[in-house]
Amino acid sequence: MGNSLGYDFDETHIKKSIYAPQGHADLESEQRLIRKGIIDVLYRGYALPMEIKNWPQDENNNPKQ
User: Fold this and answer.
1) pTM of the predicted model, to two decimals?
2) How far apart are CA 47 and CA 15, in angstroms?
């Protein structure tokens, strides 16, 4: 099929060349960032930023402390 379309690739070139859709590259990049972040938190002592959005209420509508 490649020859009929004007491509001059031999079988070795096709076997050694790599085609990967952009989505695969994006996925690998995201996974690398996630792994790095987890390593930073678990092994390098980096802190996770946290913010309290709602404080729990008890039955009498008083904030728990």
Assistant:
1) 0.51
2) 45
pLDDT digits (tens, 9 = 90+) for 5-53: 887 877 888 788 777 789 999 999 999 999 999 999 999 999 988 999 9
What residue has token string 């996974």? 31
3-state secondary structure string across the chain: CCCCCCCCCCHHHHHHCCCCCHHHHHHHHHHHHHHHHHHHHHHCCCCCCCCCCCCCECCCCCECC
Q: Can you say whether the dihedral through the CA atoms of 9, 11, 12, 18 is positive or negative?
A: positive
**Could you identify the residue written with the tokens 């938190």?**
41
- Domain positions in the chain are 20-47
